[in-house]
Amino acid sequence: MSTTTTAVLVPLLPFLGAVAGLMAGRRGPGFVRPLAVLPTALSAVLAVAVAWRQGGGEALDAATRLTPTGSVPIDLALHLDGFAVLVAVLVGVVATCVQLYSTAYLRDDPRYPSYAALVSLFTSAMLLVVYSGDLMVLLVGWEIMGICSYFLVGHYWETEAARAASLKAFLVTKLGDVPFLIGVFALAADAGTFRINGILSAAVAGDIQHPTLVALLLLAGVAGKSAQFPLHTWLPDAMAGPTPVSALIHAATMVAAGVYLVARLLPVFTASAAALVVLAVMAAVTMVGSALAALAQDDVKRVLAYSTVGQLGYMTGALAVGDRGAAVFHLISHGAFKALLFLGAGVIIHAAGTNSLAAMARMKGLARRVPDAYWTMTVALLALAAIPPFSGFFSKEAVLGAAEHAATGHSPGIPGAVGWTVLVAGLLTALLTAAYATRLWLLAFHGKGTEAPDHGREPLAMNGVLWVLFLPTVALGLAAWKLPRWFDGRSLTPALTTSVLSTGCALAGLLVMYAAWRQTSAAAARTPLGAVAADPEAAPYVSEEETIATHEAAYGGIAGAPDPADPGRVLLGPLHRHAVTGFHLDAVYSALFVRPTRGAARLVRFLDREVVDAYVRGAGTAPRLLGAAVRRAQTGNVQTYLGALLAGSVVLAVAAVLVATGA
Fold first, then answer.
1. Strands 60-67 and 450-451
2. Pick from 31, 123, 365, 576: CA 20 to 30 A from residue 322's CA?
3. Residues pairing with 451 in the sheet
4. Are residues 519 and 469 in the same domain?
5. Residues 594 and 458 both lie in one domain
6. What whole-number distance in Å separates Cα of residue 241 and Cα of residue 405?
7. Residue 445 predicted with pLDDT over 50
8. Residues 559, 603: one domain?
9. Shortest CA distance to 183 belongs to which of 142, 235, 127, 228?
10. Other beta carbons within 10 Å of 529
11. What is the longest distance spanned by two Cα atoms in the chain?
12. Do 517 and 644 belong together in one domain?
């Protein structure tokens, strides 16, 4: 089988699995789980085979004319370079782990067949984006992912939080997709093709007439899909969906698509210095703001969600300084340890019966209840904090090293201010990331108080995938020195300067958080669960239906409550109440857009009912009154009719005489 044929099967198999799973959902429920897992697993194996054959060498291209358009043609094209084949392996492996994990996590869910089919379709769409060599075909996968995310985030549609989160995710991402679509058409009009190779050739030759405008239009779609400031607010709310969905969205699909697209079209962005400045500022604000917000969250999944936003900021920062190798390396590294973190979070949520770190901090022995999650998440959190020798250290160092090169003027065409912006923000975020990763680990696994509930060992399908993802979390960074050919020949050896600085920042964040935890843990042990009052400013907490329903009575309304013994609250001080709400960005959007839109809708409704309908009602009232008058004249009395006829005849005769006399 040729490499191109194998590559076609990679996105096709999950799609066929999704169709078959939907058809077999009711008629053959026993086939649903095999149809969810096997096509995705086979797709992952084929993705590995494609990557092995491609070998990081010359890109493989294949295309066939999809349809004649009369102007710019649309081709069903494949483009297999080192980036594409590695990202496809990441998507396939993570999606397979998510499908396996879901067989146990949602084993009693009656909507599992549709859920599994949507996950397969989601995977197929992302693989189409990764392998596509034509922007219009890529756009198909791009939009299918948005639709799938709407249904998957809203899986627990009975809860208000899930309904609101799914609608918000759909609207915010579509808000970015409108200018993105315009940018795609403008880019194709300038280049004369939708083929990515042709567009890159035109960008290098300077044939893109308005590179700044096109780049900014594309960035709007990227900001929406990859949850970058200011369109990132949908991602933390998307935690209302099942935990495996969170792992899939945050690690390998949806949010990775925007970063991957910019990496593929990077010459279009480097053609405009203004676009690079905007990208750098967006990345810096995203990194620092999301790290501060993560430090204030009580829901373990929201901590990880804001963490994803920040790590995506690192990737866009690497792209801003013109290093797509570092961006894709961090994308792959982050995908492995973030999937592990989310799936591990699902295990501890099942075991603890709550998403709340405040509740877990008052449980003793939770680490002993879930040893698999404890050890694997410990390593994943170390990778997130960029502690050597784990994968996150190497990939984050690649980003910071690229920023240092740009800041010191060693990256031609990249403004020095862009490099300094990314470098300073990246170092500050490294400190904050280590702090919130340490806080999560201490509060979740080293609580003090009553013994954690014992619900038995988690299913093998849930614990097993943690160890599968543990391997790349540990080994990917160490193997990176052997993979420069996969990343445009870029050396992935950490730079000494940035290694010392970022590791120092990470260790400082770790030690400061540990000291704050030691100071507050004694108070936490003395504070009973019911003594933590609900935050009047916080959004109402809604936990995952299948995990919390049986345990809610044990912990009451503690989830989402502000804990006075929280080390994050102690370190943030007055900033905590702003950070916990994401710096009120949703409130700003509500004031600027939601309320005016609702006000305009009320005005339109008033005008429609009281003005437009008034004319309609008036047009109907006159005939109705005339009909009523005529109806009164119809008495049924013959004498009355004859009298009226006589009177009318007299009137007509008099009128005729008067007219004749006047003439």
1. unpaired
2. 123
3. 364
4. yes
5. no
6. 41
7. yes
8. no
9. 142
10. 17
11. 120
12. no
Collect all residues with Cβ–Cβ distance below 8 Å to 425 and sequence separation of at least 6. Answer: 283, 284, 285, 287, 288, 313, 317
User: Do 394 and 319 share a structural domain?
Assistant: yes
Question: Is 316 in contact with 261 (CB distance < 8 Å)?
Answer: no
Whole-number Å distance between alpha carbons of 18 and 373 = 30
**Cα 535 to Cα 579: distance, rounded to the nearest angstrom:** 14
- How many alpha carbons fall within 13 Å on the CB side of residue 463? 13
Single-letter amino acid, residue 327: A
Residue 367 domain-assigned?
yes
Return all residues near 254 (Cβ < 8 A) that are at least 6 apart: 122, 126, 145, 149, 225, 248
> What's the token pair of residue 639?
């004498």
Which DSSP category does 132 fall into?
B
Six-digit token string for 295: 């430090």
394 shares a domain with 309: yes
Q: Token match 């989160």: residue?
A: 165
In a domain, 122, yes or no: no
Question: What span, in angstroms and rounded, lies between the C-alpha atoms of 123 and 141?
Answer: 10
Question: Parallel, antiparallel, or unpaired for β 363-364 and 450-451?
Answer: parallel
Q: Per the structure block, which two tokens stand in for 261?
A: 């697209």
Gyration radius of the chain's alpha carbons: 31
Are 333 and 357 contained in the same domain? yes
Q: Which residues lie closer than 8 Å to 317 by C-beta, 6 or more apart?
A: 280, 283, 284, 287, 399, 403, 422, 425, 426
Residues 6+ apart with CB under 8 A from 152: 115, 118, 119, 122, 241, 242, 245, 248, 249
Say how many C-beta atoms besides its own lie within 10 A of residue 108's C-beta. Answer: 7
Confidence check: pLDDT of 558 > 50:
no
Give the model confidence (pLDDT) of 176-199 as tens digits: 889 999 999 999 888 888 889 889
Q: How far apart, in whole angstroms, are the C-alpha atoms of residue 224 and residue 599?
A: 25
3-state DSSP assignment of residue 394: helix
Establish if 233 belongs to a structural domain: no
Parent domain of 347: 272-574
- The pLDDT tens digits of the residues spanning 479-531 come to 766 666 667 666 777 777 788 888 899 999 999 999 888 887 765 555 554 44
The total domain count for the chain is 2
Q: Which amino acid is at 500?
A: V
Cα distance from N-terminal residue to C-terminal residue, the chain: 106
Strand partners, 76: 64
584: left (phi over 0), alpha (psi -120 to 50) or beta: left
**352: closest CA among 465, 449, 262, 236?**
449
In one letter, which amino acid is 93? V
The token pair at 570 is 């102690």
Q: Residue 287 CA to chain centroid, in angstroms?
A: 15
Instruction: Say if CB 572 and CB 375 are below 8 A apart.
Output: no
- The secondary element (H helix, E strand) that includes residue 588 is helix 585-589
Side-chain-side CA neighbours of 203 within 13 Å: the count stands at: 23
- CA pair distance 293, 586, nearest whole angstrom: 13
Q: Compute the distance between CA of residue 386 and CA of residue 503 in angstroms, rounded to an integer.
A: 7
Tokens of residue 536, six digits: 């009047």
Identify whether residues 518 and 547 lie together within a single domain: yes
β 60-67/74-80 pair status: antiparallel
Task: Please tell me whether residue 60 adopts helix, strand or coil conformation.
Answer: strand
Residue where one domain finishes, among candidates 545, 574, 603: 574
| pLDDT for 533 | 36
| Residue 621: inside a domain | yes
pLDDT of residue 556: 35
Q: Scan for tokens 């409550």, then name that residue.
A: 561
Domain boundary among 574, 604, 633: 574
